[in-house]
Fold each of these.
Amino acid sequence: MAAIFPDEGLDYVLGIWPKATAAYTSPMKLRLFTSQSASTVIAHNQALADITETAYTSYAPQNLAAATWGALAERPTNAGRQTTYPQVTFPTVGATGSTINGFYVTDNGTTLAVAQANFDDLTAVPLQANDVIKVTPTVALLH
Amino acid sequence: MARKLYRCENPACSLGAVGEPGQFTGGITREQATLLTGNPDPEHHGQGVCPNCGRPGTEETEV
């Protein structure tokens, strides 16, 4: 059996989430986690409660506004479709740092984890005083 | 324990995404402010002062 979401189908879905301001309560929150590992995330049947958010000095989650997600584009090469958010800068680390294993997205009310991901290079980021971490999130759906 | 959340409205500040106010807790230390601005006696530092640009933020909610 063959099955496919063609480009226009994926664009339709991505056009609802994360891009449609009216489809859900915006903004979602982009957060950094210290649990799991640099190359692992929660299991499919785990939840927000299983993720430990960093608490480095001055840390705060950052907003992901629905209207700010970028234009829908090809996921190279012909793998699917994607949208990318502009680079998000987190607060400069104060006195106490933290080792970051990746990032995750929660809904506006922080009631659930929408998605969780390690960094592309599968490397933890040890944040120390005066460090700044920047994340460029992408949502991709494959055909 | 709840922490106060602040928003940096400085359009030139890198905190958050470009063109959008970023959020932070706590505030820049005197030493960090000096490191950031080069001013040995920084006017603004401490609770509620943005750690990324050194300008006072606006209080938002608690997280």
Amino acid sequence: MSRLSIPAKAALAALALLAVAAGAHAAGADLGQTQKQATNWTAIGMFGVFVAFTLWITKWAAARTKSAADFYTAGGGITGFQNGLAIAGDYMSAASFLGISAAVMASGFDGLIYSIGFLVGWPVVTFLLAERLRNLGKFTFADVASFRFAQTPVRVFAASGTLVVVAFYLIAQMVGAGQLIKLLFGLEYWIAVVIVGALMMVYVLFGGMTATTWVQIIKACMLLGGATFMALMVLWKFGFSPEAMFAEAVKIKTDLAVKGGKDAATAAKEGFSIMGPGGFVKDPISAISFGMALMFGTAGLPHILMRFFTVPNAKEARKSVGWATTWIAYFYILTFIIGFGAIAFVLTNPEFLDAKGALKGGGNMAAIHLANAVGGNVFLGFISAVAFATILAVVAGLTLSGASAVSHDLYATVIKAGKADSKSELGVSRVTTVALGIVAVALGIAFEKQNIAFMVSLAFAIAASANFPVLLMSVLWKGCTTRGAVIGGFLGLISSVVLTVVSPAVWEATLGNPKGSALFPYTSPALFSMTLGFVGIWLFSLLDSSARGSQDRSGFLAQQVRSETGIGASGASGH
Amino acid sequence: MDTDLASRIASHPDYIALKARRSRFGWTLAVLMLIVYYGFILLVAFDKPFLAQRLGEGVMTVGMPVGLAVIVFTVLITVIYIRRANREFDALSERIARSVLK
């Protein structure tokens, strides 16, 4: 990764980061190419402690999970501060931690551009959606999107949007988990995937949202604590002077370029390139499109949206996003320091390099090696355990969200027409949880050797192009009708998937078609598919002259009153 | 919620004020965030040398504080919204609820 400062390669690395966002991938190649490491007993021991503690919490949570409301939303009894930490926990994946710090180590400033993209969606969620979501919804974002519409078509759309996003996110997480654990713990790939699948099922099945939330909170605290320690150690070694840290990093990158055979002037230029933007943004259209996917995808991720129903009212929902934004921003600043620390303490340390001078275990190991460099073997074990815990927590949240789409949206609302009792609904969500767990393990094993670099960006692009437009338009635009929402939503969903398949990342890199044969030249489809989603909703709502359409429009007033004031909101009283 | 209650709330002066203020404030801040973020992305796309120029004698570049400022701005603008909403919007909502749900 040390030679990636050339613009073209940096662009490749940035692309590869899409993968890293969920799993663990080095430039274009998956971690399948990395070797199994020696069994790390310290890490396994620490992870064992984490698992024992979270299982104990699950037992406690299980005693409180009696109704469907407990299962989906922890009975609405989570505070804003707790929920903020849990949202941050959902969002700070092992990949953001390992991937972004690795990207910063490889290309410096470009890693920062990437983090910023992931962060800027949060204010938009705060200003336009958080309170209204809490006031309108009960268990899933489909409750909100279908509030005044014909239930069956909108629920079917929302469940499809949820399951597709969850599936891609889940595959990326499972493959990432397997690769990462093979690396960190020295376990076999399939064992790692089965462990993740089994533990996740236990959390969700028995503890529902209460256990999932607390697993997220504990993991968020461990991750923030560990990353803070690493960043402080790095800064401390430079006398808390960022200038000294940057200067050392530039010097090391320059020396490496000289060693690579560059003349002094080129080497100096290459070394200094980590201080400014490189090849992350190749063409403006890709940059804007990718930015849109990150920014608006956040507002359409079903497992994140679901978290807004775990708090008692709109005020706590608002506070949750405030805390989540703060923690996530702080975390990204830490990963930036960690990345530069890795340049200073990992890149030149022969202990962490293989015979060819590349990082042992692959490019994504930057933060892991740095943990060893600043905190020794025990801290390395701790950080490895945190990385595993992180994947586990994110996977549990995703599964819970997928299970509620099936049991609440499809079973209780569509099949039983809203007449399912809490007990049978709960039963269906548990069966779905087991099914999703088995599917996730099977897919995780099936995709072991695949290049899944596109999956997380695809999940964000679909969320931005399908879920987000339907949610926003149904909540804010009076003219939106059932027909418009469903047609527009499916247009966004299908176009984002199709455009991703024919983009270079999938068509050429994954499917192995010749270079230059991809029909869609840009990194991310969001600019086009999200526009198509919005225009579709607008146009087909406008053209809708059906009786259902006028009923939808006349239902807007009552919906708006509830979304603005919370009067009549579910769970608004009694908590 | 029955339509009668909904239309009673909808014509309540506090509700009209709440809706207008929250919507104006929310959209203004959202547009500000979009301008700052896409301003940053366009700067990265079209004027890389600007961000890569040195600030002083050392290696520090313009891009570093600018990037940090975007992150800090994101948090600040969120906090600003939440503070005003906690103070003003919640009070209005409560007043509406009290006057219509007697």
